[in-house]
Amino acid sequence: MKYLDEFSDPALARKLLDQIHATVTRPWALMEVCGGQTHSIIRHGIDQLLPEGVEMIHGPGCPVCVTPLETIDRALAIAARPGVIFCSFGDMLRVPGSGRDLFSVKSAGGDVRVVYSPLDALRLAREHPDREVVFFGIGFETTAPANAMAVHQAARLGLRNFSLLVSHVLVPPAIAAIMESATCRVQGFLAAGHVCSVMGTGEYPALARRHRVPIVVTGFEPLDILEGVRRTVLQLEQGRHEVENAYPRAVRDEGNAPAMAMLRDVFQVTDRTWRGIGPIPRSGWELADKYAEFDAERRFDVTGIRTAESALCRSGDVLQGLIKPHECPAFGKECTPRNPLGATMVSSEGACAAYHAYRRLDLVDAK
After folding, report:
1. How far is CA 86 from CA 6, 116, 343, in A?
2. DSSP assignment of 248-264
3. Are 300 and 91 in contact (CB under 8 A)?
4. Sign of the CA dihedral 337, 341, 347, 351?
5. How far apart are CA 85 and CA 129, in angstroms?
6. Which stretches within 158-216 are classed as H helix?
7. Residue 251: beta bridge partners?
8. Nearest alpha-carbon partner for 188 in 47, 54, 359
9. What is the model's pTM?
10. DSSP H or E stretch at residue 49
11. Per-residue model confidence as pLDDT tens digits over 218-272
12. DSSP class of residue 295?
């Protein structure tokens, strides 16, 4: 396929691997921030082709995985209410809350609908003025502009029966939290290209200087990732800690100005709790005060919910890069994509799901 196959060319991949092998003289630990990059790495076996000692640590860059359990339980409580049409992207329906998921609510009679855009939920609000339509707005900076536009449009059209359950998180504060952790082993980052396509690279130079860590903005195809690894280890070997854009076909340093303007209008920065990680100051967005009437959490007063994580699940350790998915005792046994204990197993970008899909049989044979 034009413009895609060329980024999976085996001959070019071999050249990049040869350059990486020729560059590396000592062990390095790199973290890919995005779960989409994790899936590409595991699917194509990139981590197994790198020089011995170069380790890929899987980061917390799956928005489904880091959505707080409290927020999942609030979504379940809202979706179960009569008169509510609860809209979500499909990858949230199997994410376990404290005792059930959105599929369970749907099977019990809740009006839970999969949509492909928040604007689909806006259309439902116009078509059903007698119903409350709620869209589950999760994600990193990548999905936030469309959610912001939906709220902006709802205000412009006077759609008072539309609201947004917000769980947006931000990548740069997460990188800072990882580097400040006492257990951190990360020496270089592959930053998420789609996030930077919206926000640009302006927030990263200060992080690179403060923590003396290379940050290379990278895409998602095999050659993208290998080029990101090559640039990162070259910086490490040379003692540099800079920001590089290895994804120029999609990312400009200044980002997407109209999208950022929309975000500044609709959202304001707030503290966020990340599932499996904990609170990270100023690491998320919430609706700005002038759009507070569209905040589903306020509208439905879903507070005081008690949550309970699975005692068997170690997805929090996976999200922090402390263990690999198969090192969790429940992996592939009590926890599978059909019966997930944690979001990292069910999400299309979760590290546990990647290992289960592409590495499970190898792990079984190795035991």
Report:
1. 41, 13, 20
2. TTT--TT--HHHHHHHH
3. no
4. negative
5. 11
6. 171-180, 193-199, 204-211
7. none
8. 54
9. 0.93
10. helix 46-49
11. 999 999 999 999 999 999 999 999 999 999 999 999 999 999 999 999 999 999 9
12. B
- Cα three-residue angle 101-102-107, rounded to 5 degrees: 105
Residue that has been written with the tokens 């403060």 in this structure: 210
Strand order in the sheet with 28-34: 54-61, 28-34, 188-192, 215-218, 243-245
Q: Which residues pair with 299 in a beta bridge?
A: none
- What H or E segment, with its residue span, contains residue 109? none
For residues 133 and 251, the answer to whether their CB atoms sit within 8 Å is no
Length in residues, the chain: 367
Instruction: Write the single-letter amino acid at 315.
Output: S
**The two three-digit tokens of residue 266, written as one number:** 């609709």
- Which residue bears the tokens 């500044």? 264
> Angle CA(200)–CA(203)–CA(205) in degrees, nearest 5?
105
Distance, in Å, from the CA atom of 124 to the CA atom of 122, rounded to the nearest integer, reads 5
Give the pLDDT score at 277: 84
The token pair that represents 115 in the structure block:
């949509």
Residue 217's beta-bridge partner residues?
191, 245
Return the closest-CA partner of residue 137 out of 149, 155, 124. 149
